[in-house]
Amino acid sequence: MPPLKGLELFSNFSDSTMLPWLGKQVDMRSTIRKFSTWLLAGIAIAVIGQFFIQVAQDKGWYTRAGHKWDVAMTFLLSSWTLYPATLLAGFVVGLWVDAILAKRERKPLEEEAQRHYIDRLALALEAEILSREIAALAGAGQARAAIAWQEDTSEMISRGPEEPRRPTRDRSVSERAKIIEKYGEKYHADAWRIIDAAGRLMPLDRNDVWQVSHLLHGGYDIDKMSSYLMRIANGLRYPNEPQLPEIDKQFPDQA
User: Fold this and answer.
1) What is the pLDDT of residue 198?
2) Of 254, 210, 255, 203, which Cα lies nearest the Cα of 231?
3) What's the pLDDT at 220?
4) In whole angstroms, how far apart are CA 30 and each of 4, 20, 25, 33, 43?
5) pTM of the model
6) 3-state helix vs strand vs coil in the chain, percent to 5
7) Residue 3 exposed, middle or buried by CB count within 10 Å (0-12, 13-18, 19+)
8) Exposed, middle or buried by CB within 10 Å (0-12, 13-18, 19+), for 182?
9) CB 149, CB 250: distance < 8 Å
């Protein structure tokens, strides 16, 4: 392997290197960059400081430094300087104290607001995903129910003359019951959580809410919940675009 030079050697440092004597991972690139920055800053400060020291010596600022110090302190401690400086210092300290107290008072309010904050787009995405999952459950369940209905019908037709020909739908009813059972166990609580959260961001039709609220009490049409959640997702995603009313093309004035 040919020797690496310059930037090629530097680029082969891993982002994180284990140092045994420290017992932890160290970002070598960041460490070298920080070390170089502090080294250059120290050299620059030393050079600039020495320059200003030489300027002060040439200007004679260090001559009779004690006398100049006394003159400066007399001026700073005079009433013309001390009182305005005290007022300014008190004003600055008051601003800092007010900012600290305001931050402490605002922090619990911000935390409380964050707990109750609802992201429209995130809620819309969650409603859409749940709608698709419920629709998939309904489709698979209805397919199994249709097969079970055919089996019940075939069994009824194949009965002999002595057997009662009363139709029974035990298999198909059982499959539909399984659909609603799975929906109730897996999706019902999340669906109503989304509906409740959406009601804080957009107006919900009371009749639609009433219809989907009776899915577990009568009927097995969970497609209603799927379509309702999809409408909620679109309403949250496009709040300023009202949904166009449905039309019936058999009437010329609606086509």
Assistant:
1) 87
2) 203
3) 55
4) 20, 18, 12, 5, 20
5) 0.47
6) 70, 0, 25
7) exposed
8) middle
9) no
pLDDT at 212: 79
Question: Which residues, 6+ apart, have CB-to-CB distance to 56 below 8 Å?
Answer: 62
Task: Please state, in angstroms and rounded to a whole number, the distance separating the CA atoms of residues 9 and 29.
Answer: 12
**Which residues have a Cβ under 8 Å from the Cβ of 211 and sit 6 or more positions away?**
224, 228
Q: What pLDDT shows up at residue 35?
A: 87
Of 198, 192, 197, 193, the C-alpha closest to 232 is 198
- Is pLDDT of 191 > 70? yes
Q: How far apart are CA 212 and CA 69, in angstroms?
A: 85
Q: Which of 227, 223, 220, 238 is nearest to 128 (CA)?
A: 227
Q: In this structure, what are the phi and psi dihedrals at residue 12, rounded to the nearest 5 degrees?
A: -90, -5
d(CA 234, CA 146): 31
Give the C-alpha separation, 63 to 51, whole Å. 18
Tokens of 52: 């200003």
10-28: per-residue pLDDT in tens?
444 445 555 555 556 667 7
What phi and psi, each to the nearest 5 degrees, are found at residue 18?
A: -85, 120
Percent of the chain with pLDDT over 70: 70
Handedness of CA 184, 186, 187, 192 (dihedral sign): positive
Q: How does pLDDT run across 55-114, given as a tens digit for each residue?
A: 888 877 777 777 778 888 888 778 888 888 889 999 999 999 988 888 888 777 666 666
Whether 225 and 134 have beta carbons less than 8 Å apart is answered as yes
